Amino acid sequence: MADIERNWLTNPSRRSAIARVAGLMAASPVGAAMAQIDPRPLGEHHRFLSLAEVQNAFDFEPHFFGNVVQSVYDYTAHGDGSEFNLRRNRQAFDWVDILPGRAIPTSQVDLSSTLLGVNAKFPVWVAPTAQMVALHPDGEIGMYRAATAASTLMMLSINTGTPVGQVAPAVQGGTLWAQYYPQENLTTTQRSIDTLQGAGCKGIIVTIDQTASFYERTQQVRNLGGRVIRPVAAAGGPAPVLTGSARYRINGGRCWYTWQYIDAVRKMVPGPLIIKGILEPEDAVLAIQHGADSIIVSNHGGRSMDYGPSSLEALPAIVAAVNGRVPVLFDSGIRRGSDCFKALALGANAVLLGRAARWGLAAFGSTGAQRLIEMIQQELVQTAAAAGCAKLSDINKTKVKANFV
Ligand SMILES: Cc1cc2nc3c(=O)[nH]c(=O)nc-3n(C[C@H](O)[C@H](O)[C@H](O)COP(=O)(O)O)c2cc1C
Questions:
Q1: Ligand 1 center to residue 355 CA distance, Å?
Q2: Which fold has domain 84-228+264-402?
Q3: I need a surface site. Which of 102, 153, 295, 329 has the fewest CB within 10 A?
């Protein structure tokens, strides 16, 4: 470096000029505002929080991302179409205010209930989600163990990575219910239900949404990674012409559903029959008329039909139409205890954890899933105490103000 340049850089008059500018900046409102900006955004941290350090459900997600291959991460994270619903499911919770109440000690909060014959300490259950062994070797058995240790119920997906006959007996003292998608052939349906009930799953959940979904973002990622799975022209030949539903990016295999099918299933299920995927008051009423013991208000976590309402926005009108005849369960977007509180206040009798429970399992196995469920339960107790709610019936619409747009 030339002398003249070195002098200029180290010259005391230059240093004092910089100090004066810094002083002016610090004194100005603009400078003060800039100083408020967190100089260490989460993404730049060099480590993730350990299980002993995690503070909320979101802290588990980076571990999940780091622990699995991208296709497994994408399968959990992505939603249908342009993922409007996926985003809106989360935004909707921001649009509900919890009204300040007179806080009570957490020792006075008891959120236990008996719902559909199940005694639960907290109205926070585990939703059916597919293929958990891909998330962590603990898989479905690990999730069931976590749910049981956290005093809650698990719904096992029909797309399980571990057969129901292995999951059910693996954990003592738990409650395992089972979900499946309608099968047009009633003999096949009867066989599936017999298998689920034979394994000890008293509650049967029939999922009636996700009839025509398409994970566009997942497909984009696959294409960019060179794994194009749409038909392509053979060398030199014409591109194959897609016909029927495939032209519209759906397989069409689930577009036949009828309420008469539910009538038939009702006769096969002596225990609780729950219809999952209700977003319209009219469908809620029909589900009850066709024998459902409960419904789940859900848009499948933004994985069913894009550009519909968030599940939370759909909830109040459905609760009004059901009018207390059956318990209303709710899922889509639940990540925090305050989310549970808002859904309960808008009329849900219990809420289900979908992706959040998967983050816990994928991050730290069964122990992580248990920790995550318990964390959300604790947050719910804290929110209830802060809002002055000692019992579940205190968490009602007088405690919230919905500002849905
Ligand atoms: C990866 C994944 C797999 C799922 N698999 C099923 C399934 O097999 N059956 C079902 O009824 N719902 C399934 N769901 C939907 C969940 O039961 C639940 O409705 C949804 O996850 C709730 O939204 P959330 O993830 O925002 O909490 C799945 C959801 C995810 C994220």
A1: 7
A2: TIM Barrel (3.20.20)
A3: 102
